Amino acid sequence: MSRKPKEVRRTTGLPSKQDILEYVRTAGAKTGKREIARAFHVKGGERVALKGLLSEMAEEGLLRGNRKGFKERGFLPAVAVLEIVGRDADGELIGEPAAWDTAEGQRPRALVLAPRGKGRSGEPVLGQGDRILARITRLEGHDVDGYRYEAQPIKRIPRTERRLLGIFRSKAGGGGIVDPIDRRELREWPVASDDVGTAKEGDLVRFELARAHRYGVPQVRIVETLGNPGDQRKISLIAVHAHGIPDEFPSGVLGEVRALEPPCCDGRVDLRGLSLVTIDPEDARDHDDAVHAAPDADPGNKGGFVVHVAIADVAHYVRPASRLDREAQLRGNSVYFPDRVVPMLPERISNDLCSLREREERPCLAVRMVFDGHGTKKGHVFFRAMMCSAAKLSYQEAQAAIEGRPSARALPLLESALRPLWSAYAALAAARERRAPLDLDLPERKIGLDSEGRVQSVTTPERLEAHRLIEEFMIQANVAAAEALEAKRAPVLYRVHDAPSQEKLAALRDFLSGLGLKLPGAANLRAGDFNRVLQRAKSLPSSDLVHEVVLRAQAQAQYSAENLGHFGLNLRRYAHFTSPIRRYADLIVHRSLIRALGLGAGGLTDEEAQRLVQIAQAISEAERRAMAAERETNDRLIAGYLADRVGAQFEARISGVTRSGLFVRLTETGADGFVPAATIGNDYWRHHEHQHALVGDRSGEAYRLGDAVRVRLVEAIATAGALRFEMLSEGKRDGAVARGPARGRRFGKGFRRSRSQR
Q1: Bridge partners (DSSP) listed for residue 704
Q2: Do 539 and 599 fall into the same domain?
Q3: Which residue has the higher pLDDT, 670 or 315?
Q4: Cβ distance 314 to 307 under 8 Å?
Q5: What pLDDT is stored for residue 244 in this prediction?
Q6: pLDDT band for position 738 (cuts 50, 70, 90)
Q7: Spatial separation of the C-alpha atoms in residues 664 and 661, rounded to whole Å
Q8: Do 362 and 342 share a domain, yes or no?
Q9: Between 98 and 281, where is the model more confident?
Q10: Domain holding 698: CATH number?
Q11: CA-CA distance, 569 to 698, in Å (whole number)?
Q12: Which residues neighbour 428 within 8 Å (Cβ) at sequence distance 6 or greater?
């Protein structure tokens, strides 16, 4: 906590320079001439002398600022905005001033203390890249770790007010320009030679606006060099720094990991004789779940099945309040990019100790579930066990084996493991059909890179029955975890998905009506109601777009300490249990099960249970951060892939309609781009919001959401992931869109374009 300004006692004359420095050092954020004069009782003619004294101190380098605000030169004020730039060996957060004049020397660093008290309910934890308003305490000398300050957070500054990042491009005569990575701010910022710092051609840099003359061109100053995405063949470096994703583990965390030892089998159920198998993508980087199914031998459950789902026992290694645990919570989840993964846990855990490798013994937390012949669950039990994976199979390998093309690795397990899995899945699939979860078919694009980190292919992998099998087994295990915890009245970190809002439903009905589709007007819609619309849409050319618009209408899934149910899966209770290597939520669920069921060490602590609301919000935010970073990286890679095809024509579909133009999605790659309204034909275009259309005033032509069009690539900016197109197709004149009053602006050929359209 910062100290209060000392009581000032002065009998005559001006305060000494030391008195002024002491006051400025301990006063609040605003310390100008007026505040100094009031503190030292300077009145009348003495104010002129005080002004001269302050100017003299500024010239001597003792103070910086102006008469409205002074601070001690080279030091942080009592209240300052800090940016969290990293962590030390113990995992403690380090802050630096967000604004700093390099003429004052190197940016000072402060140890960021934990917020006092429990904070507001659901307030997220701080992480790298966050900005905070903090009270600063100057330490006498340096503390044992070399810090000059301690910072007590006052509040967290919203992410929208975060760092400016760009790619530096040097100029032959000195200085250069910065190309921002934000596609909404596609302009070049000039950098003077004195403001380049250590930046080199192609470096990712953090910059700030430099002071410019009243009529001069605004310039920027480079404040930090973050590496070169091109040299490192890691375009994801941009997203990592833009979103403040921690990508290096502190030495203290790695030291804890080196000391970890696997558990013995004592006290654990022995599953080593069970033919558990892992089935994952061909390029999977971790293997944390294994499955097994067999006919139920109980005569009372004829035609039923016993299914085991075994999950790596991460809770054995990652204990509450350890450095490793604090780091995992800070990250929240692993982040997957085409060029690398930023893991939640260090490699020795994710790829070794907790990876269910083929024919290697591993500790696990398992659930044994019993289903009847119709796929209805009759019971479940959780326990800690020791297992040994019989085989590591890919989805394609397992599917091929069932279809009569078994590999050498799959053949010995075909009858003993794979066919029973498929038989059990047939029963579970029938139960899933009755439950009628939201059945969205949204193919995901997969980006393949060559050895140089360049895009060599963009494909849409086939969705196999093997994918659906593993997905359904994992869902059943997640449901069982939530049910087991509720039965024990134990804390649950739910995965919730609320029903769509009435506003989104109204917009969806408007869109569907234009395609001749109707969504029931019932107040309490179920997932099955959407499925019937999706089924009818299969005969339409824009079927895939209907799936996406229905998805957009849904609420966003998140983590919660309160059970809101899962609308999309049509489940009353649901918790993530199956991926503790890559999701902190699953680790919390494991700990709660261990504590509630008395399964040994590593259970949930009272302190964690009390902070469950806060943890839920923090990891929900980390998930959204990861999704944005992954999406932006894919967009940048695709833009780079298409950069040498400027001028080429593509088949596309309109995926969004706004007042300023059309968003289009290419059929070939799934890439998204923009067509500015000002570049479309020779007409004035009005935005009909509820009909998702741009309509020409004179021609009556309309471009609607879902229309198939042909476009020409005009510009591709890889670092921003931005693609700009020219519309080649004419609008439709089928009268489907009513002419007349419309909300929004109108555009026409020759209108001056906004900065984002250039």
Answers
A1: 693
A2: no
A3: 315
A4: no
A5: 86
A6: very low
A7: 10
A8: yes
A9: 281
A10: 2.40.50.140
A11: 47
A12: 371, 375, 472, 473, 476
Question: Is the domain of 365 the same as that of 463?
Answer: yes
- Cα–Cα distance for residue pair 288/215, rounded to 1 Å: 60
Three-state secondary structure call for residue 24: helix
Mean pLDDT across 88-97: 81
C-alpha torsion sign, points 478, 479, 483, 486: positive
576 falls within a domain: yes
The whole-angstrom separation of Cα 18 and Cα 657 is 63
Question: DSSP labels for 209-252?
Answer: EEP--TTSPPEEEEEEE---TTTTT-THHHHHHHTT---S--HH
Structure tokens at 136: 């600063």
Please choose, from the candidates 698, 702, 693, the residue with its C-alpha nearest in 3D space to the C-alpha of residue 730: 702
> Residue 470 in contact with residue 310, Cβ under 8 Å?
no
Residues 173 and 286 in one domain: no
Domain membership of residue 544 as a residue range:
508-551
Token pair for 84? 């969290």
CA distances from 633 to 224, 339, 447, 479, 667 (A): 21, 9, 11, 33, 20
Residues 612, 725, single domain; the answer is no
- The CA–CA distances, whole Å, from 31 to 25, 40, 65, 153 equal 9, 13, 10, 20
Q: What percent of the chain is modeled with pLDDT above 70?
A: 86
β-pair type (79-87, 672-676) = unpaired
- Residues comprising the chain, all counted: 758
What are φ and ψ of residue 432, in 5° steps?
Answer: -65, -40
Tell me what the pLDDT averaged over the chain comes to: 85
* Residue 411, number of CB atoms within 10 A of its CB: 12
Highest mean pLDDT, choosing among 19-33, 269-283, 542-556: 269-283
One domain, residues 40 and 125 = no
H-run or E-run covering 154: strand 149-157
In terms of C-beta density within 10 A (0-12 exposed, 13-18 middle, 19 or more buried), how is residue 419 classed?
middle
User: According to the model, what pLDDT value does residue 540 have?
Assistant: 85
Residue 700 within a domain: yes
The phi and psi torsions of 455 (rounded to 5 degrees) equal -70, 125
The contacts of residue 121 (CB under 8 Å, 6+ apart) are: 613, 614
The three-point CA angle 18-19-23 to 5° equals: 115
Do 290 and 339 lie in one domain? The reply is yes
Percent of the chain exceeding pLDDT 90 equals 53
Cα 213 to chain centroid distance, Å, stands at 39
**260-302: per-residue pLDDT in tens?**
999 988 889 999 999 999 999 988 878 999 999 999 999 999 9
CA distance 34 to 177: 41
For residue 275, what are the CA distances in angstroms to 278, 309, 398, 678? 10, 12, 14, 63
**Cα–Cα dist 732/700, whole Å:** 8
Q: Which two three-digit tokens encode residue 432?
A: 């899933």
pLDDT tens per residue across span 39-57: 787 877 777 788 778 777 7
**Stated pTM of the model:** 0.82
Q: Is residue 345 in some structural domain?
A: yes
Q: Specify the number of domains making up the chain.
A: 6
Does residue 108 register a pLDDT over 80?
Answer: yes
**pLDDT digit string, tens, across residues 127-161:** 777 888 888 888 876 555 668 888 888 888 776 54
Q: What are 682's two structure tokens?
A: 């020779």
**Cα separations in angstroms, 163 against 84, 132, 200, 207, 634:** 11, 13, 20, 8, 21
CB 249, CB 331: distance < 8 Å: no
CB 710 within 8 A of CB 652: yes
Across 337-376, the runs of DSSP E, i.e. the strands, are: 341-342, 361-371
**Average pLDDT for 308-313:** 98
Would you list the DSSP string of 167-221? EEEE-TTS-EEEEES-GGG---EEE-GGG-TT--TT-EEEEEEEP--TTSPPEEE
- Is position 34 within any domain? yes
Residue 268 contacts residue 384 (beta carbons within 8 Å): yes
Question: Are 311 and 580 spatial neighbours (Cβ–Cβ below 8 Å)?
Answer: yes
CA dihedral (393, 399, 402, 403) positive or negative: negative
Q: What is the pLDDT of residues 490-501, one digit of tens each?
A: 999 999 999 999
Rg (CA), the chain: 30
